[in-house]
Amino acid sequence: MLFDPPKTIQTTVFARLPEELKNAGPDSGWVAKQPLGTPTGSLLEGPSFDREGNLWCVDIQNGRIFKVTGDGVFHVVAQYDGWPNGLKFHRDGRAFIADYKNGIMLLDPVNGKVTPFLLDAKGARFKGVNDLFFASNGDLYFTDQGLTGLHDPTGRLFRLSAQGALTCLLDNIPSPNGLVMNRDESLLYVAVTRGNCVWRVPFVRDGGIAKVGIHIQLSGGGGPDGLALDEEGGLVVAHVGIGSVWTFNSLGEPVHRIKSCMGTHTTNVAYGWPDRTTLYITESSSATILKAQLAVAGKLMYSHT
Q1: Which DSSP state fits 101?
Q2: pLDDT for residue 2
Q3: Going from the N-terminus, what domains does the chain have, and what CATH number goes with each?
């Protein structure tokens, strides 16, 4: 189905990773597992704001966690033996990391110490966790992507309840990536990168799921990566390989195309805090963080309550 062309919004550069911090080579353990053409040196992902309004992000290839100050300067808070892929803050101030190499990790933002939190699913190692999201009740949802795709549609979606119960909700996803809940938390949106689409995962009364479907179908590039939600229930989708971030209204109709002023590897998005009308975007091929001004604010996330 065709829609009216979305309006274009331009971006500007907010921060650039210094060249001396782009250390990973083509022999990096993470790079060696990825398709040819994947950026090397660094790969920025997981932008997230803490309760004080500071922007954090990860560098998966170098095992680093950065805090980016308002003047666009990167500060290394942690570097450890891992491949951090996503980062979100709990309301108690702790930072949770989706680590492709290890599992779910904890970061102490004060001293930079990274410790294990959840390394397996009932004794079986994860394929490679990718991103995570907190519900308002404290439940943690995360994707287990690994190297899955249309050739191997066995990526998984997990829920870890606030009481510690781990449930695999889906195990048939061809490359699950970013995820976010809708406004009333009746369903999850999950970016399915290799399927080039966003799935809608509805909940039923007993906490299970039913009638999973496609909410948005994209084309071109490498597929959707990070997701965010605005106050009107609209979805923001970072589209890797096409150098754009799309906004859709609550019905799934395209509204804006936010164009990268740098490269095409637009991986992840986060609304700035506290005004939440500025969108921050990691563009990994140039190791930059871009920003764009939007008219609708991002939904207030669990991390700030």
Answers
A1: T
A2: 73
A3: 20-228 (2.120.10.30)
